[in-house]
Amino acid sequence: MTEALPVADTPDTVAMAQPAQGEPWRRRVWRALLYGNADRHAKARGRIGLAMIAFTAVYAVIAGRLIVYAVTPDSHSGARSSAADAVATARPDILDRNGEILATDVKAASLFGEPKRLIDVDEAVELLTAVMPDLESKEVRERLANRKRGFAWLKREITPQQQRDIYRLGIPGIGFLNENKRTYPNGAEVAHLIGLVNVDNQGIAGIEKWLDGNGLAALHAAGLATDRLQEPVRLAVDLRVQHTVRDELIAARDKFKAKAAAGLVTDVRTGEILSMVSVPDFDPNNPKEASDPTRINRLTTGVFEMGSTFKALTIAMGLDSGKFTLNSMLDARASLRYGKFNIHDYHAQHRVLSLPEVFTYSSNIGTAKVALGMGVEHHKWFLKKMGQLDRLTTELPESAMPLVPKRWGELNTITIAFGHGLSVAPLQATMAVGALMNGGMMIPPTFLKRSEEDAQKLGVRVVRPETSAMMRYLMRLNAEKGSAKKVDVPGYYVGGKTGTAEKVVNGRYSKTKLLTTFMAVLPADKPRYLVTILLDEPQPTAETHGYATSGWNAAPTAAKIIARVAPMLGLEPRLDLPPADQLILANMKQAAR
Amino acid sequence: MISRVERTRLANWWWTVDRLMLAAIAVLMMTGIVLSLAASPAVATRIGLDAFYFVNRHALYLAPACLVMIAVSFLNHRQIRRLSLVVFIVCLAMTAATLVYGAEVKGARRWIVLAGINIQPSEFVKPAFVILISWLFAESTRKSDVPANTMALGLLISVVAILVLQPDFGQTMLIALVWGALFFMAGMRMVWMIGLAGTAAVGLAGAYLMVPHVRARISRFMDPSSGDTYQVSNAIESFVRGSWFGRGPGEGTVKRILPDSHADFVFAVAAEEFGIVLCLALVALFAFVVIRALQHAFRDEDPFTRFATAGLAILFGTQSAINMAVNLHLIPAKGMTLPFISYGGSSMISLAYGMGMLLALTRERPRAAMVTLERLPPELRTA
Hints:
Chain A has about 600 residues and is α+β, with helices and mostly antiparallel strands. In chain B, helix 2 (about 20-45) runs antiparallel to helix 3, helix 5 (about 120-140) runs parallel beside helix 7 (about 170-185) and helix 5 crosses helix 13 (about 305-325).
């Protein structure tokens, strides 16, 4: 042993319990006062034990508090994750009938700030605006200034380059959330059809909104819509046809300096809408354009007096009732006088016209007489049956209510007979004409892909098949001899009806502000497709010899579209077909026999 | 070298020192370095220093700290008392000198520059004071010519007076608390205890009424919405964010915001980056050191050893508990470092000095004589 152990120098424990004998009385009193007469050794032991318990308790409380914090959900990131839920919702892809992508989700980063975590707001704002000059520095500062806030969006959907730049700045309290940004690779091509989404990826128009209304929103609410493997939605639209129609309509709108141009291609057997274009349209990737009122979808959201194309409905009504036949003669020698009104013909013949002539010369007087012959109530009943008096509902949320006269008298029947005084959505009129063409079945139009069997189940008979055949004959005849000669694209046996409506300006029909329409069926003997063209206020040009009626603008546009579209739709050109009275009428009579 | 056969001084030390406590302290020191790596670079870069300035200094201080701790743990009781007397007198004088020569930092004069090193002498006063008080209370338990109680009170008043002048309410509170605890353990009657507690309550109430920033802190604690609770609410958030296993090293964000993340709020930083599991481990380490030291005090028969051990343990334990409780928003904010974890040179060396003494005091001694005495029936003992 090299050194003594560190022994307590006075291990005189006995003294502790002993009352001090030899000390002065004053100190003894002091001691008694301070400590009492207990065994101080035992007391000290006990009190050290107490200290142990106290410290154990204190540390237990600290540990308890730690555990409480550990199990506390991070409210802050909770708020963030709910924000993430709201924005990261995936949407199904939207495809055209051939599988081409019309709308898809692309991951995009969104910039947010956490004011609570920010160290220097001014520095952060300065750095951010340096990288992204389009950021409003005042607004960003305002959003970040409230230190109590845990989360504030700064900029939604930034580019990867911007994200990298901001990342390099290394500002604490600034972060990114990955969002699904909806993109429309075809831009404006299918704008009115598929609509668009808002910045939270919720559909606000068109098919996109329809998706939300059909379970997608519920999926979002349940938090299940984040799955990228959602079933794509297949539409009826054919992107190639859509592009062609749009291309021709833009050209026509330019050429005739029209306010707007719109076109529809529908399958008369299934009700599918293969193409729907209304220019001016908007790029759904740039939502600001969508709210411009001049860019509305004129085919569903607008209602128009359809003009002479409506005569098809009136003539069909007469033929279907059996009261009129193709041989019926109608007196169009003088204008039709009703009260103080005089109804004239545009291409006035001043003679008695046969029913086909009424159609091909587009005689207002003749058509009005057909309608008057059926009576007001029958006319109303028939138009109701043809869906012209009620709002047409399709997948598109945008739809307009027809403007139906409140009191419908004989005068109304006269004007409505030739397409004035009743405003309907062009899609609605197309649906009705489609029913006249396809053998008499009214099939509700759809933007989704639909098979012929499904369409047959949905179809409701509105006119007899013979009526339909006669109507096709009249349509074809019109292309052979009448106002629709310009639309006779060789090989496709097109039939068509023009329509020129005078627009109401300040309560009077205007002679210069016209709405020209054209409806073409192809092929007229075995109808497959219906093409509807609408030009809003086309202007006369040198080429049209000063005319601005349908036959000069809408019909040639339709012809161009048909020439380009028919091969895409798989229609084989058939040349050298006999005229309509042989091919359609004779077949009908044969079938009847 | 360390063999039971050959009783070298080192071997002797090794076999008598409380090795578990030594290990616990060593682990705390190492954890301090790791957490310094997490917490201090953010502070250093914010005030324009090299990112690892505080880490390097922390590590640098650890060497003398270890040296001091081991060296002190070799001392025997008499040497401890004498050293403490010297340290106490020198450091109290230096603390007094800070009032005149100290640089004012954040409204208080606590620091003095000695040979180019910033020293906070009041840190060293604390453990030395505990030893002196323990000796005085031990003296008071036996027949002695020393006016122990009077001297103990005198010491307290002198230390408190200087600390209040600095002002350093945290250290004052700590010293008063340890003094009271030792007085209590020395066997003070309950009446006085209640009196002391009453005085403390009146003192706190007085501080609440008279000192604006104390009042503000307490009202903020009671009603967080009443004022700026920036530090504490950020600290709480870091616990919540950290959850059980933390966000991972370097993933903490709160440390960038807390001005004292390397000192007073290192516990919160630890929670955010390494998780509450680590925090619980730290709590367990502190609790282990404190309870084990108190156990030694409980068993020891010698009044001085008992009081000194308990006093040092209480000093250590109270400081750690207050720091963690402030971090966890259990008590109003009070600047107090977390022993061995927080950054601070003076604090580190002083803690090493205190823990060195604790290790020295808790070394095993031959107790045969005492055990025999204890076994005697009381009547024989008092005879």
